[in-house]
Each structure stands twice: as structure tokens, then as C-alpha cells.
């Protein structure tokens, strides 16, 4: 059991180590660059809006030659307050970036992650790429993907809401943080394992059934992903590392193919 946890967690740093590998770099750095540009633009707009707010709330005093000493003091106080508020704004912006970068990276990188997972599997299997799934054409695939995402949201909500309630239940609330951490690891694993499994046409419901067969291995992988997202700077590349690691885990530990009779 412990061996599976350690093995699963090890796929995260292994994914990290392949970020600069030829053939993968484009799928890794392009979405990261887009994400960085988006954040820079948001910070620039936020800074401009904050400056306008300061100009409205703390206008500079008009201290002319005949102005009293109080005008000079007021102008000095306004300047000092601006110097205090700008660093606070910078800290707040940094915290927002830290906690939201991974979320936005997932949104922006989602279109690239399917191709990244396909490319990793192609390299890991000496050219055996996932078979293209037709499933009734593009419209049917789109409907199936949307339905899968809705099932995923319902599943996560059905588990997360009762766990949040436990935080307010006396005595039981002691175990709530540990249960929430376990759920976070499982959810992270499901999120990233979806890319290699989805490339084989395996729907979310069947993914859960297949991953439960190696529950501790998948928990270990999810825990490694969660830890990586909590490390400043390293969390910037948590998403592509997790996608690469998930694909390697799929190929090496799960056989790179659907388990027979996976359902439920």
C-alpha cells in the first residue's frame, strides 16, 4: 500500500523532469506563456484601476505659496499613505496570482493538454499513439465531452458538500481536514488522468471504475500534484507536469488500455 502511494507520487517529479524534452516543449510552454501574458495584462489593468481609486480617495492637496502648514501636512500624509497602500496592493495581487494561477492554467491549457498527453504516450510507447475515436462524429464527441464535464462537476459537488458540512459538526470536525485533503488528492488525480484516458475514449464514469482498481497508486499521484501546486514558482508548471506524469502512469502502471468490463 505504501509502495503504491510512493510510486504514484513519484510520477509528478518525473513529469516535471520532462518539461524541456524535445517534442513536448511546445505543448508545455505555449499555454504557460499565454497564462503569464494574461496575468500581466490583468495586473496592469488592476494597477491602473487601483491608481484611479487612490486618485479619487486620496487626492493630492493643493499646497500653494499662501497655503497653511496644515496643507503641507495633509499632502505629506497622502503621499505616505500611497506609499503604504501600493505594497499592500502588490502583496494582495501576488496572493491572488498564487491561488488562481493553477486554476487559470487549467482553463487556458485544457485545449493543449489532450495533445500533450497524446504526444507523451506516443513517445512512451515507441510510436503507438492513442487511436482516434470517432463515436458518431464531431457533434457526438462534443456532446459526450460536455456531458462528461457535467458528470464530473456533479460528482465533485456530491462529495465536496458533505465534507464541507463536516467542518461544522462537533467532534467529527477533527477528521474533516484529513478527509478534505484525501478528497483533494483524489479529485486532482481524476482531473489529470482524464487526459490520457479520455484520449482512448474512456468516459468519466468508466475512468473512476478503472482508477479504483489501483486506488492507492492514484491517491499517491493526486497527493503529489496537490503538494506541487502549493510550492511557489514550481506551481507555475504543475499542470503540464501532472499531465505528463498522468500519461506515464497510464502507460506504465495501467497498461495503457481500458480495463476489461470497466463500468459503474
Characterise the protein shown here.
α4 runs antiparallel to α5 and α5 packs across α7. The protein has one domain (2-253). It is mainly α and 264 residues long. The longest helix is centred in the middle third of the chain and has 56 residues, at 69-124. Helices cover 74% and strands 0% of the residues.
Distance between the termini: 24 Å
pLDDT < 50 stretches: 259-264
How many β-strand stretches? 0
Mean pLDDT across every amino acid position: 80
List keywords for this structure.
single chain, 264 residues, mainly alpha, 74% helix, disordered C terminus
Question: What is this structure, in a nutshell?
Answer:
With 264 residues, the protein is mostly helical.
Topology:
Blueprint: H1 2-16, H2 25-57, H3 69-124, H4 138-166, H5 176-198, H6 204-211, H7 215-229, H8 238-253
Helix pairs in contact: 1-7, 1-8, 2-3, 3-8, 4-5, 5-6, 5-7, 5-8, 7-8
